[in-house]
User: Which sequence fits this backbone?
């Protein structure tokens, strides 16, 4: 870990000002950034602590939906009645993420900027990794990749994004709200993470010094659910996860939004399946055919062929769970 300077921002404006320094990094809960610095994934010259910035931790109703402040702690978000009752898919995803101790510290704004869990990317000893050293190659492509991508990968990177809440947020069509001296943005969660075909070295679309200040959810989705499949129940990243938000007309799906996690570098929406699900009962045999329409674009690696069946089954099951909510 290299030496760095530390500053505490007293306001949002001060945070933005301090964040314009070269090699600056924002510190929220710190559950990821400290690890990055320890193993050399990130080596900022300045760390800006946001803990004292007021006004960024509220969960409140806005016109047409709910806004969650970026500094809201994960457990607080999951247990807030606006989220637990109106957006159960997000509450479920948060409560299945990490451990209770980490959720009490980690923030909803920091969670989406997690880095990939590829063992080569996080190795203490150097291995070819385009995310660590652009142009060096991808050790996982012909190495250990049984937990890696089945969608959206290239030979430059086959890693997946591991976080749970972004999968739920993608299924909800949520938007990340940012601030920056040159102007903030509204970034759909579905477009926040960068696919290898866009740039294998990048993780997300944030600009230097750009600060996440909130996440906005559209109209409540009470018929929604999250399913996480992992090797151990207590504390583990998803092997495959699935999120669904349904709008029902009697016993028939009027609109479906379905996203998978841990299958690509971003939460993967099953767009083709969503179009075919309209007009079907959640337990109809044709649901499987609808899901298969999205898996036509799956490209498993030699070690990830098993994930295709697992992900397909997870998608079908989460649709049933959402309908029962």
Assistant:
């Amino acid at each position: 870990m290299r030496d760095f300077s530390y500053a505490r921002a007293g306001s949002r404006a001060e945070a933005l000002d301090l964040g314009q320094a070269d090699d600056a990094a924002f510190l929220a809960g710190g559950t990821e950034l400290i690890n990055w610095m320890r193993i050399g994934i990130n080596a900022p010259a300045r760390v800006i602590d946001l803990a004292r910035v007021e006004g960024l931790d509220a969960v409140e109703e806005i016109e047409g939906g709910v806004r969650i402040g970026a500094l809201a702690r994960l457990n607080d978000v999951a247990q807030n009645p606006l989220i637990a009752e109106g957006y159960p898919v997000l509450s479920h995803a948060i409560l299945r993420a990490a451990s209770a101790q980490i959720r009490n510290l980690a923030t909803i704004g920091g969670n989406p900027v997690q880095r990939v869990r590829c063992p080569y990317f996080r190795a203490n000893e150097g291995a070819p990794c385009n995310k660590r050293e652009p142009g060096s190659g991808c050790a996982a492509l012909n190495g250990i990749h049984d937990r890696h991508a089945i969608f959206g990968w290239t030979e430059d990177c086959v890693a997946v994004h591991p976080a749970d809440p972004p999968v739920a947020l993608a299924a909800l069509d949520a938007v990340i709200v940012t601030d920056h001296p040159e102007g903030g943005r509204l970034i759909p969660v579905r477009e926040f993470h960068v696919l290898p075909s866009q740039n294998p070295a990048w993780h997300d679309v944030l600009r230097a010094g750009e600060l996440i200040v909130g996440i906005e959810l559209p109209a409540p989705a009470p018929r929604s659910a999250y399913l996480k499949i992992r090797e151990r129940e207590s504390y583990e990243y998803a092997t495959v996860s699935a999120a669904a938000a349904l709008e029902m007309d009697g016993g028939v799906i009027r609109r479906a939004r379905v996203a998978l996690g841990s299958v690509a570098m971003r939460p993967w929406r099953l767009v083709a399946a969503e179009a075919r699900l309209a007009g079907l009962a959640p337990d109809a045999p044709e649901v499987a055919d609808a899901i298969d329409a999205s898996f036509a674009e799956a490209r498993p690696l030699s070690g990830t062929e098993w994930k295709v069946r697992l992900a397909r089954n997870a998608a079908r099951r989460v649709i049933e769970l959402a309908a029962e909510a």
Q: What stands out?
A: The chain has a mean pLDDT of 96. Residues 224-324 form a domain with the Enolase-like; domain 1 fold (CATH 3.30.390.50).
